[in-house]
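[Q] Does anyone have a clean structure-token version of this?
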Amino acid sequence: MYRVLIVDDEEPVLDSYAFLLEMPGTEFSLVGKGRSGFEAIKLIHELKPDVVFMDINIPGIDGIEVIAEVHKKVPGTIFILSTAYERFDLAQRAIPLGIFAYLVKPVSKKTFLSTLEAVRSALLERSPVPPILSGDLAERQFLKEAIWKRMTQEEWEKYKDSFSFHSDKGIVCLIELEEDQDRWCRAIAASLFFHHRCLFTLYHNKALILIPEDVDRRLLVKELEEIIRTTVPESVFSAFAVGESHRGPDLYLSCGEALTEMGKKRSYADLRLRERLRIIQIRRRIGLSSSEETESIFRALWEDIFGTYDFPTSKAKMVALFTLLIDDLTGCYSGPNEEDPPIAPAEEIMPLLDSDEWEAWSREACGRLHDLFSLRRSGNYPLPLIKAIGYLHERYAEQIQLSTVSDAAQVSTAYLSRLFSEHLKTTFIDYLTELRVAKAEKLIRETRMTMKEVSHAVGYQDPNYFTKIFKKATGLPPTMYALGKEK
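[A] Here you go.
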């Protein structure tokens, strides 16, 4: 079977050519599709096709420029040009490149198949081309080894000629994702291929992309931000870093700059992660854990924040936190409510002048809120509800149903559901889920159990389902929660 690459930015053309190639008896196999000039160059080096159907008017550099750049590097490859217009000037440019055929779109089935037959005959008459190192392997070796150390000018010229670089400069990008790295990094790289020549590989759990062009770094950063925003789901944590543009022999400098920037972003991301985790812990535990434990988490949170941000920004973050806590306590910001907030966060926090005033105010305010939460969360509940809560706290790791708990509390399921709603402002299922997630948080933080073991320990037999429940409750997958725990 002969290997065929199709390059066209129109999906109907790609689909129709692919359909015709897959017809019985053609002796041709589709190995790839490209949609831009830069992507075509990469795929030609990587796939080494026997035949390339190349549209002329494609994004990036046009089809004739692509062939001009690669045809000496892939001897024996047959190139077939296609375009929507029959133009003599294009034919003139194509003749010196040894183009096998020139098709005017729309291409009929008869014309396409007859062209394939002519290609097959030409391939049969040719001597086999000696095997060479696959482009993909060569790219990986170049990206993982050569660009991380200084090259001589002679070495750079060899690489430049081998990969058909048309610039003496390049720039390095690193991308890190929380999950599905291969999938999303390849999608990001594919988007970059529409506008730039790129070399891509996965390296040390990061996407490593080299753009061998003299690119404006600021514009590239904006472009990457937009590609990641539109490609990667918001729920997937991502970070990227871009070095400066350097001459080929000095590409190692761009690697080092990108790596340093990624380290800074990773440190900042870790700080934000710890901040989120501690806020989650405070909101879930205040009034349930001891005042000392709540105060310890709260102090760790504000010391991190005040040690990182300026004083006005830190105070603003604390206003947001206390507003969340007051809403958790009273619901006064969630809807109509006649209950007055016990604290006015903005009015009380923003006038504070220094860290001493903040520490004195926060100690008193945190203690006051803890007492109010304790009263609200451990009030005079009906005996059946107390029995039900006790049963759940003892047996949360078992397969529990409302009917089982109502039998233990000696009431009907409907009555028990109403008790949860009226006194705890939640449902039976939500209360059990919150309890299990809280227990899971503790196990992740304090033990070395695997996620599967944690899942089983808190009553979930399916670890994947546990992950979904945990992420829905906390906003983070348990794997990321584990990364943020104290060492």
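[Q] Thanks! Anything notable?
[A] Confidence is low (pLDDT under 50) at residues 127-135.
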